[in-house]
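A note from the maintainers: we've had questions about how concatenated examples are separated. There is no special marker in the raw files; a new sequence line simply starts the next protein. For clarity in this README we add a label.
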Amino acid sequence: MKNKINSLSLKIGLILLLIYFILYFNAIHEISSFIRLTGYIAFLFLFVNLSIYFANKKQIILVNVFITFTLILSVELVCFFLLSMPSGIKKDFSLPYLPEDHIARNIGDVPYSDSVYHKVLVNGNDTVFDVKNTVDHFNKRYTPGKDTLKKKHALFFGCSIAFGEGLEDDQTLAYRFQKESGEYNSYNFALSGHGTNHMLARLKFQNLTTQVSEKNGVAFYIFFWDHIFRSIGSMSRYCDWLSNAPYYEIKENHLVRNKMFKNGRYYTSKFYELIYQTNIVKYFKVDFPLKLNDSHIDLVCEMIKESKNEYQNQFGKNPFYVVLYPTYIEYTPEQFQLFKNCLTKKKIDYIDLNDFLKYSGEHTLGGDPHPNSKTNELLGKELLKRYLKR
């Protein structure tokens, strides 16, 4: 009788498992809460029955394995209910099929060249922004007002903050610096979602002297604390938007490029893809690596150092500065000091704007945390002032 019950239970589990896989593979973008629940119940049936089966066979190691699987899945199921049975996303992490010399194959996702993007963000009944972003022939943001009589350049690298997310072309930090200085033409190489690794990859891939007509000038890397997580490809950033991003690592005390995060560290990235939507990860807000350490900061600083070297290889001994942007991402004072110490150790100059203003709601677009035009105007003036004092 007991064997019949176990056999029936196993058959139920296998039928549920078959139903789950049929539903899963036919889902296009979303894995509904019903499909997920079906999968959890099916695997529970399977693991429990396999535990019993191997116990009868006295195969203790396999019994312990499937008991462990059962316990983990039970916690996963509890967290599923605690999170109110969320649906999942069916996401494709595969890399785009592109020619070897394509810019996106080398530096990651970029906007189309010679394009104008109309971006709108609505929060409830309020329009947070309704703007147009111009992208030039070299896949960088256009900065209006170039004056061919000016003899100096100011190159800006960074993420959405430097790019000017939610702002018009004449409201970015690069434009404000250009307007305030009177003698520099600004070039905005920053792009939303990018990190230190993207800056280095672009400098390695493109000869910027073909885009920048002035030989003399300065380069500014607008550093935002989240760039560290992006540049090391943490699980949350990788799974959200950075699978097709440049992967750098330290090997034998040297910085080396190893393809993209997706294919340069295949097993780590595959592990992230498998667990990032689990309820245990979501409920306990787990991210990998679990915390930043000295090696992560050293890796990012090494990328900055190599970016500086590449910039100076192309433009001569022009100054290169890391601009420490006032941040709203949490970090400890010890971590921030460690980062500054690392920059100093590697002979990288920086301008610390954290002491200039405490970033708050008045500096944002309202309904979006990115800096508004007034904030860029203030910081553009301060950046120029501090740079000229050097």
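[label: protein 2]
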Amino acid sequence: MIPWLVTLFAHPLTILVVGLVTVVGMIVVLRMNSFLALITAAMLVSLLAPGAPAEKIERVAVAFGTMAGKIGVLVALAAIIGKCLMESGAADRIVRSFLGFFGASRVPEALAAAAFLLAPMVFFGTAFYLIVPLARCFGRLTRKDYLLYILAIGSGGAVTHVLVPPGAGPLLIAKNLHVDLGTMIVAGTLLGIPTSLLGLWASRLLSRRMVLPVRPYPGETEREPPADDQLPGLAVSLVPILLPLAMISANSLLTALVPPGGGEPDRSDFLAGMASVMAVLGNANFALLMAAGVALVLLARTRGLSLARLATVTEEALTNCGVMILLVCAGGAFGEMLGMAGVGKVVEPIFPRGGGGYALATLWIAFAATMAIKIAVGSSTVAIATASGILAGVDTSSAALGCHPVYLAAAIGTGSLVFSWMNDPGFWIVTRLSGMTETEGLRSWTPWSAALGVAGMLVITLAAWLVPLG
């Protein structure tokens, strides 16, 4: 009996079930912090996985540190950039400029576009907090379409939050699936645009069926936006966002044109030299460091802050992002332990291999797995960490998938959008800041989020079919 039990608990699928039950049980049943759930699951999986007993706990810490080395600097620098955009008024300038560009008749499109641009840097909750006062203002002026404005913010911000680095979730997916960051940025943006447009369409349909009034906050004062003459110009406001994206994408493009070890004989020396330079300048850590420096200078010049105050702002940003870094690194360690347990090799046969319909089936399986985890635990980041961790041990090369692995990464991201309800922190951010009741949130935001995730997956499926890039 004992050998049989040992064999059972040593099987990768049993280890996978133990890990998933631990994560879901601790978060949903015990109401534990997501970091504790993920790191506990990682240790349990490591104990059950093969290896020397003395190393089983230590390797969890090593995997945690490895993931911190991969994404910790990026998330921290992105948090500094986001904080500076908020404090300097640059984020307000971007939102107002988008409203001016689209015009009064296109307020939903303007709100969505602003959130689409800001969310990867300032994270979805912060972007929503920043833009919702404008939605409330327009809701009072028009006396209609307030729900449309709220969902429009989600149509832009929620999509890039899960698809475009340097958001923590997309960073983790890219690292686990070995997708180049520049490719993830470009593909996530291109796939996110039609997804956001479909989200806006769904927002209009839902807004016609449900009226949401603009309610005053009980006992609270709303954030007062700064005067227009106190804000920096649009061009300088966009630099901290566009600079790192351009540098990283340029590095990825040149790397594709000039592979490591030198280009083809007909490649020019200039192109090869540019590739060498961009290998340094376009490194994601360096690019975001430069952007953080620009953002700090912008904040100092706009608000006239001293060096001591700048240091305080930086410290506040790093404090706020610390929990996110811990969560993502714990998710990375959990995924690494699942790989050591051999889960990837066992689940790999579930995923069809080859091109055409096989590739599309693989994407939908990954989407469904992420969706199921998201519905259970609520957190998009936890769902992304768990699903991408399971797939980290699977052969996700273009040859095996039948399409570029960036589509698989995007499928995981959109799966984490589906069915945001009362166990999702994002649900409470949206309902509390918009003035919705819980019932109104369940009638509007929850079904809308499901539609947004499915719409995104349909976009990904079509793109992978038409342009597999494999």
